[in-house]
Automatic annotation (TrEMBL):
Protein's UniProt name: Dihydrolipoyl dehydrogenase
GO cellular component, one term: transferase complex
Cofactor note: Binds 1 FAD per subunit.
Keywords in alphabetical order: Disulfide bond, FAD, Flavoprotein, NAD, Nucleotide-binding, Oxidoreductase, Redox-active center
Length: 469
C-alpha cells in the first residue's frame, strides 16, 4: 500500500534535513529517503563535522607542542594518541547524527531507508538494504542528494594510500609524506591536519595560485603562511599518474601544466581533492525527464523547480557554491515556496570559510571581481599584529580587508585571515544583508579587547583612518 505525503525529500544532508524540518514546521506531512545507515549526508558523516573535529584536535596538539612554553606552561612534549583522536571525531559525528534523528522525531518526519528512484512526478520507488521495494506517493519531491568527490582519469581510489577526503579523515597512521592534489579548501584543510601531526605535505595545483575563486591577495599571503608552517607547493602543475610500489609507497608523476619535463615525487599517501561533482546516480532523472546542465547539475528555476512539475532540487546537486549553509538556506526557501511563502536566498551575501589555522573567511566580491566589473572601490585593511587581543593570545597572523564602493561607501566584500575568522565574518554578512556602509560599521561600538575590533578598524580606515595603526 502506497503512503501519501505532501513532500518527500531524497537525501538527508544539510539541505535535505533542513528542508524537511521547515516543511514540517509549516504543517506538511514529510518523508525523507536516505540510502545511508545514518542521516546527515556527507557533511555530518564524512565531511564538515569530522574534519572540524580533527582540525581542532590537531591545533590543540600543535599549541601544546609549540605555544605553551611562551605562555609560561611547561609540560613534556605532547604524545600523539591517534586512535583516541579518531575516537573523538567519531563521537562528534555520532552526536550530530543523533541530533538529526531527534529532530525528525520531534517534527514527526518519516525516515525511509533505501535508494530512492523517481518513477514519475508524485511517485518514488525506494529499494531498502533488505526486503522488497516500496512505492511512495507524494505531492512534491525535493532532490537533495548532494555531491561526491571528483576523480582523476587513470587514478584508482582505494581510500588507503590513494584517498579522497573520506579516507584522509580515517588514516590509521600519520603518513611520512602526504601529497595533496588540488589547492582548494578541502585539500588545504586536510593537508594542514596531517602536517600538524608530522607529515611532510606537498600540494600540487594545476592553476598558478591556491584557493581559486578567493581574493588573490588573500591567497598569496595565506600561501606564505602555510609555507612557514612547512607545507610545500607545486603550482601550475598536474599529476600525470600514480604508481603503487610493492612496499605500499607511491611514486607520483608530476608535469608542468603547460607541458615540460616530468618529475617523480615519493609519497606514502596521495589525497585527491580536485573538487566535487553532483550526485544523481540511480535517481531516474532521465526517465522522468528532469533536465541537467552541461556539468551534470540539475537545472532549476528561481523557485528551485526542475523541468518537471512537482520535482525540485537544492544544494550541491544544483548550480552554485557547494556549501552546507547554502544547501540549508535553499532547504528553508523551497519549503516556504511550497507553502506559498516568499522563500529566498541571497547568493550575493553567502559567506565562505577555510578552517585552517589561521582561518580564512570571505563574503561578497573579491578585488579581482570588482576590477573585472569596472567598479570603483576603496580598500580598508587592518592587521592583527596591531590588535591587543591578538597579541595576548598569540594570534597575530593575518588581517581584515573590507572593500567598499567609492561613491556610496556601501560594503561590497570582506575578507578576513586570522584566528576565528569564520566567526568574525558574520557581522559583515549582516551589514551587507542590509546594504550597510563602511561608516555604519565604523560607528558601531566593539568590545575591547576583542579580535573583532580589527574589523571595526578596517572599516575606520575606509574613512578618516584607523585608530591603532
Amino acid at each position: 500500500m502506497a503512503d501519501a505525503y505532501d513532500l518527500t525529500i531524497i537525501g538527508s544532508g544539510p539541505g535535505g534535513y533542513v528542508a524537511a524540518i521547515r516543511a514540517a514546521q509549516l504543517g506538511m506531512k514529510v518523508a525523507v529517503v536516505e540510502k545511508w545507515a545514518t542521516h546527515g549526508g556527507t557533511c555530518l558523516n564524512i565531511g564538515c563535522i569530522p574534519s572540524k573535529a580533527l582540525l581542532h584536535a590537531t591545533e590543540m596538539f600543535e599549541e601544546a607542542g609549540h605555544s605553551f612554553k611562551a605562555l609560561g606552561i611547561d609540560i613534556p612534549a605532547p604524545v600523539l594518541n591517534l586512535p583516541q583522536m579518531m575516537n573523538h571525531k567519531s563521537e562528534v559525528v555520532a552526536g550530530n547524527v543523533g541530533g538529526v534523528d531527534y529532530l525528525f522525531k520531534k517534527n514527526k518526519i518519516t525516515p525511509i531507508r533505501g535508494i530512492g528512484t523517481i518513477v514519475s512526478a508524485g511517485k518514488i520507488l525506494v529499494t531498502p538494504p533488505t526486503g522488497a521495494a516500496i512505492e511512495i506517493e507524494t505531492k512534491n519531491i525535493v532532490i537533495a542528494t548532494g555531491s561526491v568527490s571528483a576523480s582523476l582519469p587513470g587514478i584508482e581510489i582505494d581510500e588507503k594510500t590513494i584517498v579522497t577526503s573520506t579516507g584522509a579523515l580515517s588514516l590509521e597512521k600519520v603518513p611520512g609524506k602526504l601529497l595533496v592534489i588540488g589547492a582548494g579548501v578541502i585539500g588545504l584543510e586536510l593537508g594542514s591536519v596531517w602536517a600538524r601531526l608530522g607529515a611532510q605535505v606537498t600540494v600540487v595545483e594545476y592553476l598558478d595560485r591556491i584557493l581559486p575563486g578567493m581574493d588573490s591577495e588573500v591567497a598569496r599571503q595565506f600561501q606564505r603562511m602555510l609555507q612557514k608552517q612547512g607545507m610545500e607547493f607545486k603550482l601550475s602543475s598536474k599529476v600525470a599518474g600514480i604508481d603503487k610500489q610493492d612496499d605500499g609507497s607511491l611514486k607520483i608523476r608530476i608535469e608542468p601544466a603547460k607541458g615540460g619535463d616530468m618529475e617523480i615525487i615519493d609519497a606514502d599517501v596521495a589525497l585527491v581533492s580536485i573538487g566535487r561533482k553532483p550526485f544523481t546516480e540511480g535517481l531516474g532523472l532521465d526517465i522522468v525527464g528532469v533536465a541537467l546542465d552541461e556539468r551534470g547539475r540539475v537545472r532549476v528555476d528561481q523557485h528551485y523547480k526542475t523541468s518537471v512539475d512537482g520535482i525540485y532540487a537544492i544544494g550541491d546537486v544544483i548550480a552554485g557554491p557547494m556549501l552546507a549553509h547554502k544547501a540549508e538556506d535553499e532547504g528553508i526557501a523551497v519549503a516556504e515556496i511550497l507553502n506559498g511563502q516568499a522563500g529566498h536566498v541571497n547568493y550575493a551575501v553567502m559567506p565562505a570559510v577555510v578552517y585552517t589555522n589561521p582561518e580564512i573567511a570571505s563574503v561578497g566580491k573579491t578585488e579581482d571581481e570588482l576590477k573585472a566589473a569596472g567598479i570603483e572601490y576603496k580598500i580598508g585593511k587592518f592587521p592583527f599584529t596591531a590588535n591587543g587581543r591578538a597579541k595576548a593570545v598569540l594570534a597575530t597572523q593575518g588581517f581584515v580587508k573590507i572593500l567598499a564602493d567609492v561613491e556610496t561607501d556601501r560594503v561590497l566584500g570582506a575578507h578576513i585571515v586570522g584566528k576565528n575568522a569564520g566567526e568574525m565574518i558574520h557581522e559583515l554578512v549582516v551589514l551587507m544583508e542590509f546594504s550597510g556602509a563602511a561608516e555604519d560599521l565604523a560607528r558601531s561600538t566593539h568590545a575591547h579587547p576583542t579580535l573583532s575590533e580589527a574589523v571595526r578598524e578596517a572599516a575606520l580606515s575606509l574613512g578618516d583612518g584607523a585608530i591603532h595603526i
